[in-house]
């Protein structure tokens, strides 16, 4: 078509004013949905592999003082104009052991959060629970009344020898009692965490744990790999004797065995670690965060991702309380993501959910995934690790076990150091 330039009319606006409609007025003031995480850093005893910022509860009540400061931190957050335009899509109480709090303390925190963040219609609320006497029936009933949807129970193993060898402070019998109280409180959605790669795990103990857990019919089972972090008792033990660890190959075999077992018993894999019995049992806190949604962390050492910034609260309890008491948010470090970081983060985190949506990628960044990452997409698809169609880049189910390794391929070259070496093809 021949271009004709006639100076017809001025452009007054784009898009033209005619696209505006009365029905869209309400959306001008729509709040930005965020996922809220609250860290409750107390445990009766530290597990040998634990690298979280937790304090052992030592008789004297440190929790009331902590909750007091947590409530103050929520008030301080509420003063931020950026927070005043947010709504709460998910709420997650993690730790630590959240059930070390009293029922009244749970109520206080939830009410304080609800004053700051209106809940979205599809709001979802998760609480982590440790098998233990502190998860009383009264507390679990209160959690149910507070609207908690999902309880996540740290089971780790159904073998007492393994639990003790890895420094867990509960027995299998404790798990059964806690699980019964959770169901008695009326919860119809329970996640049970198992841990692969624990000390003394054998093919038989692993299989037995899975079978016992499956008999309880939790709606989710999540399998985390035990990793050795430098600030743990496990790290010192491994330094003295590296032979105590089971090999990566055995751990990978156990994960694959668990996956086969769960998939033949009505579960499907919904992200890099979690199995569900139904699509209605998808943990949207984790899913939203993994798809790059904003997360506001509250409490000691909590992490946040908000409007393109990653930041973390101080991990020092004294400093946390002093800063909050002084009227400041206790954020100790942060990083502003560049556009390139945000794009990479989106793909990396989405792949932990096993696929990247191409339309969402275009909506967020204005380009197709294949334009930004042509080499990575070509390599993954040509080697069969992933498939590309009009909707998604999806990890091949054969390689779901290696979702994190596939995600790391999108790291910038200086970070990923030939990560392909970590993806083992199953023969
Ligand atoms: S229960 Fe969880 S948070 Fe507490 S010490 Fe053990 S691993 Fe750490």
Automatic annotation (TrEMBL):
The transmembrane segments are none
Q: Where is the Radical SAM core domain?
A: 28-268
Q: Where does the secretion signal sit in this chain?
A: none
Looking up SUPFAM superfamilies in the UniProt record yields: Radical SAM enzymes (SSF102114)
A Pfam family found in this protein is Radical_SAM
Q: Which SMART domains match?
A: Elp3
Among PROSITE patterns, the record links this protein to:
RADICAL_SAM (PS51918)
This protein is called what? Heme chaperone HemW
Query: Origin organism of this chain?
Result: Paenibacillus borealis
């Amino acid at each position: 078509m021949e271009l004709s330039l006639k100076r017809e009319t001025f452009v007054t606006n784009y898009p033209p004013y005619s696209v505006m409609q009365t029905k869209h007025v309400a959306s001008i003031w729509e709040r930005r949905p965020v996922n809220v995480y609250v860290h409750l850093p107390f445990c009766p005893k530290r597990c040998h592999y634990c690298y979280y910022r937790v304090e052992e509860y030592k008789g004297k009540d440190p929790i009331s003082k902590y909750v007091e400061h947590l409530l103050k931190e929520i008030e301080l957050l509420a003063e931020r104009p950026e927070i005043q335009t947010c709504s709460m899509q998910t709420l997650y109480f993690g730790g630590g052991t959240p059930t070390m709090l009293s029922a009244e303390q749970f109520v206080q925190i939830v009410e304080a959060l609800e004053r700051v963040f209106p809940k979205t219609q599809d709001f979802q609320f998760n609480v982590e629970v440790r098998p233990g006497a502190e998860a009383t029936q009264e507390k679990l009933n209160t959690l149910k009344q507070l609207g908690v949807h999902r309880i996540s129970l740290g089971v780790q193993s159904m073998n007492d020898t393994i639990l003790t060898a890895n420094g867990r402070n509960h027995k299998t019998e404790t798990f059964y009692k806690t699980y019964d109280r959770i169901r008695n409180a009326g919860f119809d959605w329970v996640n049970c965490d198992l841990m692969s790669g624990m000390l003394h795990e054998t093919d038989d103990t692993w299989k037995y744990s899975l079978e016992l857990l499956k008999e309880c019919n939790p709606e989710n089972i999540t399998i985390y790999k035990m990793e050795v972090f430098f600030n743990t008792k496990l790290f010192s033990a491994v330094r003295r004797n590296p032979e105590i660890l089971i090999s990566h190959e055995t751990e990978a075999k156990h994960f694959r065995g668990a996956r086969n077992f769960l998939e033949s018993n009505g579960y499907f894999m919904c992200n890099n670690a979690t199995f569900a019995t139904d699509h209605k049992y998808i943990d949207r806190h984790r899913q939203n965060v993994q798809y790059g949604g904003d997360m506001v962390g509250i409490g000691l050492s909590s992490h946040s991702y908000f409007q393109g910034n990653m930041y973390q609260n101080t991990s020092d309890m004294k400093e946390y309380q002093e800063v909050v008491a002084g009227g400041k948010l206790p954020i100790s470090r942060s990083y502003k993501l560049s556009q390139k970081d945000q794009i990479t983060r989106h793909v990396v985190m989405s792949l932990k959910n096993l696929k990247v949506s191409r339309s969402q990628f275009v909506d967020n960044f204005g380009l197709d995934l294949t334009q930004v990452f042509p080499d990575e997409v070509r390599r993954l698809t040509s080697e069969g690790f992933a498939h590309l169609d009009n909707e998604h880049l999806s990890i091949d189910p054969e390689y779901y076990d290696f979702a994190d390794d596939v995600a790391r391929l999108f790291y910038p070259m200086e970070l990923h150091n030939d990560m392909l070496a970590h993806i083992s093809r199953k023969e």
